[in-house]
Amino acid sequence: MSMRTQYCGLVTEALLGQTVSLCGWVHRRRDHGGVIFIDLRDREGLVQVVCDPDRAEMFAVAEGVRNEYCVRVSGLVRARPAGTENAGLNSGKIEVLCHELEVLNPSITPPFQLDDDNLSETTRLTHRVLDLRRPQMQQNLRLRYRVAMEVRKYLDAQGFIDIETPMLTKSTPEGARDYLVPSRVNPGHFFALPQSPQLFKQMLMVANFDRYYQITKCFRDEDLRADRQPEFTQIDCETSFLGEQEIRDLFETMIRTVFRNTMNVDLGDSIPVMKYEEAMRRFGSDKPDLRVKLEFTELTDAMQDVEFKVFSTPANTKDGRVAALRVPHGGELSRGDIDSYTDFVKIYGAKGLAWIKVNEVAKGRDGLQSPIVKNLHDAAVATILERTGAQDGDIIFFAADRAKVVNDSLGALRLKIGHSDFGVEKGLSEQAWRPLWVVDFPMFEYDEENSRWVAAHHPFTSPKDEHVDYLEADPGRCLAKAYDMVLNGWEIGGGSVRIHREEIQSKVFRAMKIGAEEARDKFGFLLDALQYGAPPHGGIAFGLDRIVTMMAGADSIRDVIAFPKTQRAQCLLTQAPSEVDEKQLRELHIRLRTQEPAKTV
Amino acid sequence: MSMRTQYCGLVTEALLGQTVSLCGWVHRRRDHGGVIFIDLRDREGLVQVVCDPDRAEMFAVAEGVRNEYCVRVSGLVRARPAGTENAGLNSGKIEVLCHELEVLNPSITPPFQLDDDNLSETTRLTHRVLDLRRPQMQQNLRLRYRVAMEVRKYLDAQGFIDIETPMLTKSTPEGARDYLVPSRVNPGHFFALPQSPQLFKQMLMVANFDRYYQITKCFRDEDLRADRQPEFTQIDCETSFLGEQEIRDLFETMIRTVFRNTMNVDLGDSIPVMKYEEAMRRFGSDKPDLRVKLEFTELTDAMQDVEFKVFSTPANTKDGRVAALRVPHGGELSRGDIDSYTDFVKIYGAKGLAWIKVNEVAKGRDGLQSPIVKNLHDAAVATILERTGAQDGDIIFFAADRAKVVNDSLGALRLKIGHSDFGVEKGLSEQAWRPLWVVDFPMFEYDEENSRWVAAHHPFTSPKDEHVDYLEADPGRCLAKAYDMVLNGWEIGGGSVRIHREEIQSKVFRAMKIGAEEARDKFGFLLDALQYGAPPHGGIAFGLDRIVTMMAGADSIRDVIAFPKTQRAQCLLTQAPSEVDEKQLRELHIRLRTQEPAKTV
């Protein structure tokens, strides 16, 4: 009665001599010496089906099938003739001699070959159903599933409970822009889609669930970059009664387990921990890519009295920075290379790119080749050579500007050179998985535009115990119990110990100039919850899309999402978003601002 | 370093003599003979902590703690004094002699006692964080998690893959009302939140994923009844290359496995299957509650020539029905009971409730007590007694009207009587789990208002192979490959074999008077997908909220959802939905229709 007895890709020599029924798609059909060969494909792979003309009825069907026809085959598993085995296929030692062939559904000619690797993204997303048939997309989504399932297994074993939090929730215009949902029953009122379940998971801790997780959609209405989608999936976790270190241990074990069980990758016994301050100092980034072996050298203090204004001005400015990046073997870079790097750093706001080629370090100043070295006094030159550990054949690049510009531009240059063909060839980067915890983030960043401190992580992050007094005295010095997990330069997860006492939460709001009334209006339900014996708690959220993208080696998170949106936030397959009936708008108590007329019913 | 070594509820005599650290909430604090007893609660349960005054510092802390304070205790596990054991507690044989007591967070006085069972729903939802601390809610959400996890394990073992489908999708104003999400990037355009992932899961089948599932939120903007929420959770499944029977087998095994593994309930070896037509005939319902042993008796044909117009008119009307419900021992019902049942059936549109008490069946007409029997000729009376199998002491109720009114009113009466104290006492219903498949649903229902056929299930449901010709000739006769799983009168799941051939899909649209252009506009992406060798496929969706509500014996699905909405679609905890800033509306290219001013920034 069953349409099939086996998956195509799982028919092997273990079934020799047996009759099997298979269902799948015609991947390729070849007519060879009067015999028709069909490569039949299902989700487990391909099998070769041989259609002999001696079964006339079946053969007539075989003559009619085309690529992507959905068919059912029944036939005999037999060994392939010696010399025609295909070691690249799981089923490569056998073939199926076709007895019956039924077309379950024909196919019109597909707009592209499934094995065409040069399709535009527009083509792929428009014909997503066919694009998803491609083996790479099949593998990506199955990997995604396995990752999610490994996460669930691990968290289940650790006593975590998946609890669903609302999708229709309250708009709190902090952070990113909300997606809004007009309420029909409550005119003039709107739900927001959650940017994260942050407050709900904290309330679940107050409610004594102790360990919570959820693999859930989050929404941010932001302009999209390559690695962003309007809706994305978080592995969202929270636990009570654990300290920062314990929380990190719990979740780094999770990540190590997932990598081991899905990718057979060993991330090492323990993930190194680096303070935010050190990461910025050495790499100019709070998510340093440790595969690249280049590091910054701090020079701000040593450049305050040089004649070269490009260096001395930022060196003497609050918030200025002068830093160097030594590139071993960089002496081999051509003037053209250096020019293109100069253009590159300008993207990040740098005004130029100073450099020194170290021809012969033993000769000091005379062994250097550089447009700038004449403007640096001997002590400065000596300090540069000493601190960078310069060796013959190196090039040293410099950035001098506001710290942010230095970090961004020299940080980007570090990655650019490290991952360039030159960098790979010279061993300046490695192929590896290099995870890292970055910890001790600042509590606040200063928002120049609005002259106030804003939360660097989110306003529910706990300050370090010994920094609570800074909340009022010097918010900029206050560090947080926050931690990010970084992998190869991507932030894959971030979290913190949360504030569990109402008076600390209120202090944090005050430090951010959020008044008592505003705080109550926006977060009253959290402040209330904290008053009923809220437990110490903390957690983390991992970006599932991003983790799977890295694992799959995909170019974009769109390659690990079944039905993604374009960078214009559109679904090319279903044509969402779309216009709606005027009646729908009326029921929701809204009207359009635009001139475009709504369709009338 | 750890705050705790054990969960409170898991400290047993196995730990006698050991020092433990516990964290939790003060459930109750008693001062007894100069000693303070604290019942300490965490998610695993309670443990008794004894605070002796001989440790003065600790004792002073103990004197200060109040209910719902969050505290950390460390102390010695010792046996309770003989005679003070509490068999109702897992930890009832031991107590913890407190050495250290730390207040992690105090609590203001809660607005209610956690063990108060008479709280209004408004109070519970407003203070949901405290309400969730109640043991019943803890158990309900843990049961919900276990059910979901058992589903995942089963489907994983069967080769199903969880694939996420979009939350921001296309509005298709079929079926229920959509929740809409205005697009910022595409002015005048809207996303819709999914009513179900139906079309996406079908496209995943066309895309060769073969077996898909997802436990996912769905959204319907309908006026809410007791068992409805704006967002609800579906266990959504789809598979390729299986027939109707195979699909049902796969998923009834899932449900049986889940009941066994979470509730230790055996649902039997196989779930009975009943045709829609039979269910309506015998029970007046397509989701009959088989715990109730009462059944309809069909009398339409036998009442066409009786004098009693109340019966003969519907019996002679197309779409009319006359049916009886025999209630064993119903002769004991008082006139007051009968009057109240008469009022009850009026809720369902019945104009009255005819009845016959069967005092002595052997005496025929003379053995009956009834206001109506005088208007029925002898043959009609004989038929009634024979077909109902009337016995002395029974009452027979009658409904005669349009079939829908008969089914609704007599069906409701059947449940009302069966589950009444009388019904339970007389064995007219049982305490049991009575699952059932209802199959062979009609493809279409006639929409009188718009004079057209509409899909009874959804328009992607496959007709029975032998009924394809009815699509054009007689849509009302056309049955579908659709099936519902019914449990104790609730529909817990529903699904169908889908249409996989484009020409059948187009015929179904035509039968529903959906023109080619409209079909293309709304479902073009599906029609396209079907043309590329779509496989035979089908599936089912189960309502997780409802299944867990039944398992938990809860009054409402709100008791198995952490943060539900009220029947006014509001969250009393966070005050969602809420007003939003004018700036937000402007960015979304919409304005309010109402008079209420939006807040200005």
Structural class of chain A: alpha+beta
DSSP strand (E) fraction of chain A? Answer: 15-25%
For the largest interface, the chains and their residue counts are: A-B, 128 and 127 residues
Shape of chain A: globular
Strand arrangement, major sheet of chain A: 6-9-10-22-21-20-17-11
Rg of chain A from C-alpha positions?
30 Å
CATH superfamily grouping of the domain at 292-425 in chain A: GAD-like domain
What is the name of the CATH topology of the domain at 292-425 in chain A? Gyrase A, domain 2
CATH architecture of the domain at 292-425 in chain A: 2-Layer Sandwich
Uncertain parts of chain A = none
Q: Which CATH class of the domain at 292-425 in chain A?
A: Alpha Beta
Q: Kindly state the number of beta strands of chain A.
A: 23
Number of helical stretches of at least 4 residues of chain A: 17
**Average pLDDT rating of chain A:** 95
Oligomer: homodimer
Profile the largest sheet of chain A.
8 strands, mixed
User: What's the N-to-C terminus distance of chain A?
Assistant: 48 Å
- Indicate the percent of residues in helices of chain A: 25-40%
Binding site for ATP (chains A, B): 220-222, 229, 491, 543-546
Pfam family, one (chains A, B): GAD
Site (Important for tRNA non-discrimination) (chains A, B): 32, 83
Region (Aspartate) (chains A, B): 198-201
